[in-house]
Amino acid sequence: MLNSMRKGISSWFIKILLALLIISFGLWGIGDIFISGGNKSVLAKVGKYNIDQRDFLKEYSINLENLSQQLGRKILPDEANSIGLLSQTLGTMITSLMYKQITEEYGMSINNSTVKKEITSIPSFKDSTGSFNKFAFERYLNLTGQTEEEVIDKIKNDIAKRQIFLSVSSGFSTPKEIVQKIYNFREEKRKISFIELSNKVYNIKNINESDLISYYEKNNKSFLSPELRSFSYINISPKEIAKEVKVSKNLILEKYNQGKSLYFKPEQRSIIQIIANSKDDILNASNIINSKKLKIYEEIKNLNLPNINYNKLENISWNELPKELADFIFNLNVDEWSQPHKSSLGWHLIYTIKLNPEGTIPLEIVENKIKEEIQMDKAYDAIYKISNQLEDQLASGKNLRNASNIIGVKITDIPLLEYNSKTVFLKDLSLETKNKLLSNVFNSNQINFVQSFDTEEGGIIYYTLNKIKPIETKSFKNAKEEVLKEWKFKEQNKLLKVDGNKYFNEIKNGYSFEKLSENLNIKINHLGDLKRTDINKLDYLNKEIIEKIFLGKKNQYISSLNEKEGKFLIIKIIDIKSPLNNQINDDYVRTKQSLDTSYSNDLVILLNKSLRKKINIQIYNKNIEKINFSGLIN
Prior knowledge:
Elements: H1 2-7, H2 12-24, E1 34-35, E2 42-46, E3 49-52, H3 53-71, H4 77-82, H5 85-105, H6 112-120, H7 134-144, H8 148-169, H9 176-187, E4 189-198, H10 209-219, E5 224-225, E6 228-236, H11 238-243, H12 249-258, E7 264-265, E8 268-276, H13 279-292, H14 297-301, E9 308-317, H15 323-329, E10 341-343, E11 346-356, E12 359-360, H16 363-395, H17 400-407, E13 412-417, H18 431-442, E14 450-454, E15 460-469, E16 472-473, H19 476-508, H20 513-520, E17 525-530, H21 543-551, E18 557-562, E19 567-577, H22 586-614, E20 617-620, H23 621-625
Parallel strand pairs: 1-20
Antiparallel strand pairs: 2-3, 2-20, 4-17, 4-19, 5-16, 6-13, 6-15, 7-12, 8-9, 8-11, 10-11, 14-15, 18-19
Helix pairs in contact: 2-5, 3-5, 5-8, 9-22, 10-19, 12-16, 16-17
């Protein structure tokens, strides 16, 4: 539930679909509890709870819409079920009810403030300022057909389930011996020296047209013109709407007075602090500073007194300091040095540079901020109305252009373009929104089908695909330059491979690595601290080369041809370095955390299996086969 709301219609759905199937079914052995019979509308029974067809279809329709949005086209139930949507939805509902029953049995209660905090933390319910966007939440309810109470109930159940998971899995620590073995494998480092031969040294001459034609005919599917698409979109942007919102001085003043507590600013001080470990050191510093009447931080720091640390803190509040220092510092006079003061951190000398008294921030300072907040609030209200008007027109059969004309919003037409083109269009969109729009357009195959998605700033994009110009094979004439370039590159690789193997065999037969470098006038490169995870860290470090390097022994030579880059490498393994035993560093900690997570997941699997034995779960297979999906097809 929470996951679907956090990610909305983004890429989470496809990526975790199979994982959800495993969690919902495989982890607790649901395969042997399918039975027939029972009430025809009941699909499953989880302890005292039933899952009937009506509740299932409501949840299923949410997931189906998410899937359609992700793929950029309308997905029908038959296709969705072929990739497991029916099983995933039912499995998730069973899991939720199983944990709901457990939380009720053990009297677990989730208060409303916890739920509120969870909802307001969901990124898709935030506006561009990071504040909770009520419009986005209400739009989610409308799109999914849920009530606020239903959503809150699901969130409470999800939080409780998460707490149960944590109670089972938290505190587990992977045995040190296992962590050390995995860590040693991952963090083993190798040092190599290598000569890099390039295919660029080979000049291909006497090129016959017939060779190019033959190559083209064998590989013509490689020479394609890109797919092009044209589309139209409406950008309902809160920022753009806000620019047109007029806000009176009286309204700004009213909001300022209503929220004065928000504009309260505590007392702040700017100080110079001198710290020493011993009383003698701090007294020595105090005597020198007072005798020279120093008050400027740079001058004090330039004293370079022994065993003394200096820092300057500007505009700090009481609650930003340790309590044992806060009371002391905030009772000092301005423009005076304090007496030496002892705390658990050491001995302190404090000089108060300036004091900004507490008080309410004047209206003139926050006036523009308040105005922008009012404008954005009204903009979100306007978006809700515009969206409803647009949805009504679309529901009545109007296309996107006609609907936009009727309600008076701007529609933008984008001519045929390719997916990765650096388009001069879409300038009114942020990079994130632009990328999402292009991704959706190029994942859709339905012409004139209107779709929408929420933007990161809390607006809405409506779009429709107008035309698709499919990928086409270029004629030899149009592809000739590409054919020539590719053919020459492959011919150069053939020559490179022959010479590379010849030189490598010479090295294996005892010819000096240094002598080969000198004869070919190619320098020997050196690379240290190479790990198994460094695949593609550099252009030539592909998977094949890394595997060869870590299978080899010290002082062994290996070779590799990278046909894509036109490089032939002759490599010598200079050194093999294992990590130090009992060394605790960031990499070791990450390895341990990864293993702890894996073991914790295994414990959750065991928990699910245990709960299955405790709670009677029945699934009515014949009823599932008779589910009527017709109401979801339109």
